[in-house]
Amino acid sequence: MIVFGLQIILEVIFLLGSGLGFDGKTLLRILLFAISSSGIAVSLAYVFKAKVNVWFISIYLMVMITFAITQLAYKNYMNTYFSIRTALSKAGDVGDYALDFLMHLRPHYFLVAIPIVLYVLLVKKKSKQYLGVFEKEKWLSLLVGALLVHGLAFFSLSWWPQTTAAYTLQELYYRPVQLDSAIRQFGIGRFMMRDLLFSLSGRDAGVVITPEDPDDPIDAPVDFTREIDDQQWRYLAANETNETIQMIDNYLLNRQITPKNEMTGIFKDKNLIFIMVEAMDYVAMNENVAPTLMKLMNEGIFFENYFAPTSACSTGDSELMGITSLISVPGMCNHDEFYSNRYSASMFELFKNHGYFSSSYHNYPDVYYMRNIMHRSMGSQAFYDFEALGMTNFLDWPEWPSDIELMERALPRFINRDKFFSFMISVTMHNPYERDTIHTTKYFDEIKAIYPEYSDFIVRYLSTVKEFDESLRLMMAELDRTGKLDDTVIVLFGDHHMLRTEIEVMDEYTEEFDRTYGYNVHRSPMVIYNSTIEPQVVSNYGSTKDLLPTLANLFDLQYDPRVYLGVDMISEEADHYVLFQDGGWVIEEGYYNPVTQVFEPNPGNEITDETIIRYNQISRNLYQISQAILD
């Protein structure tokens, strides 16, 4: 009972400290799982002598405590929990960040270590009741009892069924892909065990797609029909012998063909500079700090309900999603897992098929992501990283290269091409913002003079924003000088919000909306700019997965909308929603919280349970189909 009590203390402290909380149903389930796992651990421990017994239980508790503290810290650091798959794939790449990660451990995280402190104190008293010394013949009875309780705990998964959730509790138990929900439903100790087994078992191939009910078609006043000849695809699907590939084909073939619209082809044959901006946040939207950025935002097609969902490896996964319109598989670094795949329907390939020179540029070396391989896999005809661009004077973390130098060295490599699609990945705005670096201090005094009331943390961030803005100013001037400005479209989107920043801090410096509401921490400024168009604001909801089909329509590229998991964000006939890795989603009417399993409507809106079930099914289907495609 002592070890059980200590584990329950750990579980309750974790759930309260994480903000996940619990109710009577989840607490009962966690109690049952804690009884079974602690009982099994104790029964195994008492096979050994007393001294080894103590060490065994100590290790059992310390493993859970370490895992719990690391999860709390990672959630604070990256705004997501991690799967052991992530830890296994990235363990060798985080050396530069280890000290910074440790520095961001909050004191209250260590409250989950109370159980080991109590255990040590109890052991020091050397009392048999605390040591729990049993006669050897009783250890089997304890083990059998623990296994019986485990059976009851597993049976509890069928109690209080989740009628609107994307996964039943049994499914989530075996496939803990919605990390927040799995931790809250089973407890951090049981989640650790299930996630370990799931990670070591490999990616499961037993994906079952349940078709969701389609939206009612909207009558269009003008015939914008998109003609698709899919006879060969249907023939291949009908004769496919691989069940997984056939499932993928059948699902995609039955998706909606989003029709053309009044915006189709407005950028036909123009060039495209597609920029993924490191940590571009609404806090950066400041005329005095970033005049060029704000010019593009104010004079282009601005998407006011665009989101940049985070993941285990947000930058790399956002890159993959933006270029392929796939959805990153939860709990793993997709960029690392799937960098050698062949992405024949990527944005690189689409533009290349229309006579564009498709290339990509990044002012950082391949020390964290395998971009040299990944970009070739995605169809880039030439990828230039830090070394290939001829950049020198590389400085170790926490310093980051300048985006000005990125522009200076990248632009000459494509700007004189007849038609170009150039994907650029910036880096200067990367955290940390709590310390002085070359770029957090470069414009610090200038910005502080304008905003003396701003915190040093925010001023440092804005200093990096100004450096990026200067790179935009250089780019615009060069496009103008070469006569390419009117014929070039510029897209700016963020890989994620300001990571390692308190949501209350972001909310304080965001004027446009409440950052603390729902998933608004992930709302991100996104714009499509061309000097020849009129400003426009798009209110439809969208995210990184929707960039490719939106641009494909604007450039009137030959593509089949069903191939892409995203949709054209401008289309009024598409179903617009944003998916998050924890299983939540956002639509115009409100947002769904998968942890509480409650839909929170925006003022004046309500939806039915059937609609909740439908979007949960869409979420489940798209994550599973994306995993099947990537695998």
Descriptive account of the structure:
With 631 residues, the chain is of the alpha/beta class. The protein is built from 25 helices and 14 strands. 45% of the residues lie in helices and 9% in strands. An eight-stranded mixed β-sheet has the order 5-4-6-1-7-8-2-9, sandwiched between helices. It has a four-stranded antiparallel β-sheet with strand order 11-12-13-14, covered by helices on one side. The chain has a two-stranded parallel sheet with strand order 3-10. The model has no long low-confidence stretch (mean pLDDT 90).
Quick take:
The chain is α/β, with parallel strands linked by helices and 631 residues long. The protein contains 25 helices and 14 strands. The protein has helices at 2-18, 24-45, 50-78, 84-90, 95-103, 114-124, 128-131, 139-155, 169-174, 179-186, 188-200, 231-238, 243-253, 291-299, 314-324, 334-337, 347-352, 371-377, 403-410, 438-442, 444-450, 456-481, 503-508, 547-554, 609-630; strands spanning 271-277, 301-303, 306-307, 357-362, 382-384, 420-425, 488-494, 527-529, 536-538, 542-543, 578-579, 585-587, 590-593, 598-601.
Topology:
Blueprint: H1 2-18, H2 24-45, H3 50-78, H4 84-90, H5 95-103, H6 114-124, H7 128-131, H8 139-155, H9 169-174, H10 179-186, H11 188-200, H12 231-238, H13 243-253, E1 271-277, H14 291-299, E2 301-303, E3 306-307, H15 314-324, H16 334-337, H17 347-352, E4 357-362, H18 371-377, E5 382-384, H19 403-410, E6 420-425, H20 438-442, H21 444-450, H22 456-481, E7 488-494, H23 503-508, E8 527-529, E9 536-538, E10 542-543, H24 547-554, E11 578-579, E12 585-587, E13 590-593, E14 598-601, H25 609-630
Parallel strand pairs: 1-6, 1-7, 2-9, 3-10, 4-5, 4-6
Antiparallel strand pairs: 2-8, 7-8, 11-12, 12-13, 13-14
Helix pairs in contact: 1-2, 1-3, 1-6, 2-8, 3-6, 10-11, 12-13, 19-22
